[in-house]
Design a protein that fits this description.
This protein is an alpha+beta fold and 158 residues long. It has helices at 41-54, 59-62, 75-88, 108-122, 137-140; strands at residues 2-11, 19-22, 25-31, 92-101, 126-131, 144-154.
């Protein structure tokens, strides 16, 4: 077994037409995040945790933000590609635990959809939690959203 952890943070966009995507789910009525892809911090943190656990680098190494081919891509597609790398290396996902750090929006109404979407893609249980920064720092001021993830991989190649 191997354990990996991931973290991601993106600034809140000033563009009211940019959707907020978290865990593959579009959150209506919320400002989106600035990023080369759809800036889904939850999916990015999970992908980084998977890559780290398998010793395969990080998301930026595999999908640099200088690559025009990934501009605007849905992060779920990147996660699917990462899972292909993980499986090719002889691993399966045991489970994923992720935490979203944001002042707004409230994520409780969307948690089940995020967990279902991600669990189906990952092929293992995914739990999503949410917390705030108690109005401290840029996240607390609503200027950014962050996510952390921990994954357990099973199987291996030496």
């Amino acid at each position: 077994m191997r354990v990996g952890q991931g973290f991601d943070i993106h600034r809140t966009s000033d563009d009211p037409s940019r959707p907020l995507v978290l865990g593959g789910v579009t959150i209506p009525g919320a400002l989106g995040l600035v990023g080369h892809s759809d800036a889904d911090v939850v999916t990015h943190a999970i992908a980084d945790a998977l890559l780290g656990a398998a010793g395969l680098g990080d998301l930026g190494q595999h999908f640099p933000d200088t690559d025009p081919g990934t501009e605007g891509v849905r992060s779920i597609e990147l996660l699917t590609d990462v899972l292909g790398l993980i499986r090719a290396a002889g691993y399966t996902v045991g489970n994923v635990d992720a935490t979203v750090v944001a002042e707004a929006p409230k994520l409780a109404p969307h948690r089940a959809a995020m967990e279902a979407s991600l669990s189906a893609i990952v092929g293992a249980p995914v739990s999503i939690k949410a917390t705030t920064m108690e109005r401290l720092g840029p996240i607390g001021a609503g200027e950014a959203i962050a996510a952390m993830a921990v994954v357990l991989l099973e199987g291996s190649t030496p």
